[in-house]
Amino acid sequence: SQTIHQWPATLVQPVGSPLSLECTVEGTSNPNLYWYRQAAGRGLQLLFYSVGIGQISSEVPQNLSASRPQDRQFILSSKKLLLSDSGFYLCAWSPRGLGNQPQHFGDGTRLSIL
Amino acid sequence: KNEVEQSPQNLTAQEGEFITINCSYSVGISALHWLQQHPGGGIVSLFMLSSGKKKHGRLIATINIQEKHSSLHITASHPRDSAVYICAVNFRASGTYKYIFGTGTRLKVLA
Questions:
Q1: CB contact A30 to B (< 8 Å)
Q2: CA atoms B41, B44, B49, B54: torsion sign
């Protein structure tokens, strides 16, 4: 069966520090991968998605970047965190090319910027 | 106006009550997904549907594509149903399928 792992679960970082959140998927190949952010009291917002290694699409301009160095690995990064980067970050995957397939979510990372 | 609207935003019910959460959307979709988010933040998939009705245990989801509306019903609610329920619409754009999420309905069921 397929599983998605996301870490760390919680992170407290000072303003201006770098960030790296990692997400890996097991039990499937060529997944579509997604990074979402949920700000306090707000809905989930798509940040990045990827349909293949090295292929990253950004949905909103921001201080973050994403990379997909391997088929089942998706990384969310920042060189210098801002206070506004605080929030709950979720990684998700869905099967490639099968249309109406549900996305499956990781457990999320709660990021607090001080 | 958000493309996906949920109502109510907050809901408090007594144990055993029948609960309805509504989701309306304004875009053309290929499917709609109901999700449950627990206090820790983890998200569980409940239903994905593109027509009609689905039932799983005490949960029932319906969708009316013509009216662009879906409902999630919980029968005989229980305190363990307390969570945020999120509606997400799945649509095709730029060669892939994407979700737009509602802001969620926070449900609290009292014993």
A1: no
A2: negative
